[in-house]
Amino acid sequence: MEYCIEARNVVKRYGSFLALNNLSFTVPCGGKYALLGPNGAGKSTTMKILSGLMKPDLGEVKVMGYPPDSTEARRLLGYLPEDPLPYRNLTVRENLEYIATLRGLENPREVAEKMISLLELEQYQGVLAGKLSRGNQQKLAIALAIMHNPKVLLLDEPLNYLDIPTQEKVISLLKGMDSTFLISTHIMSIALRLTDYVLVISKGSLVWQGSIQQLKAMGREDEPIESVVARLMTELK
Ligand SMILES: Nc1ncnc2c1ncn2[C@@H]1O[C@H](COP(=O)(O)OP(=O)(O)OP(=O)(O)O)[C@@H](O)[C@H]1O
């Protein structure tokens, strides 16, 4: 099987605090995976390492066989950080055109136009990113993460700050993409709608993995999936 994301024996410390403790998992190409875990489990740290933003202290991480900070991986990867910071002093349109140019996309203006329309940012295209509401900043960050139709998409809490119609819009946008997904979230409905396989981490290690179907099967009759996951996380603590 071909893996699009590989993390092997990853260790990451912040000072003396062990954030990732020998974390290993793989995501096959085309896989739609959710990354779940209690607060502080190491999800965002994992995403930062996979995106090449941060280096592990030990272990190995690969994106389609490349180190995440390589030019090849950067071309293949899209990353939506938990607290995205677009260029605050550029407008929405300028942010999109600038990043499209940096990514070497063929027609940055057309790409920017398309993303503005896809995410319904028309009325904000001339607004400085730093002046946008949190929700519109999130929409811009999503546009920046997916503009190059990445093969591998890392999404850290993708629906944060979005109103309900926009959440639905973004879900259908993501559903239409054939990228490999790793989505870190606390919202089970996102995992249910966008992914079919779950990785659960706790204290920086992988503690459970399985399909959404397996997860559902662990529940009592009519038990909400949130309750199953809560039980799982409590038992594994
Ligand atoms: N820059 C940092 N310096 C020190 N400790 C950090 C730093 N970043 C994260 N940590 C700690 O590492 C642990 C893992 O953090 P991380 O953000 O990866 O967890 P998470 O699973 O994404 O949590 P949450 O669900 O609360 O967002 C936490 O205990 C956090 O306090």
Automatic annotation (TrEMBL):
The organism's place on the tree of life at top rank: Archaea
PANTHER family xrefs: ABC TRANSPORTER ATP-BINDING PROTEIN
Keywords: ATP-binding, Nucleotide-binding, Transport
InterPro entries the UniProt entry points to: AAA+_ATPase (IPR003593), ABC_transporter-like_ATP-bd (IPR003439), ABC_transporter_ATP-binding (IPR050763), P-loop_NTPase (IPR027417)
Sequence ranges assigned to domain ABC transporter in this UniProt record: 5-228
Protein name: ABC transporter-like protein
Species: Candidatus Aramenus sulfurataquae
Any one GO MF annotation of this record: ATP binding
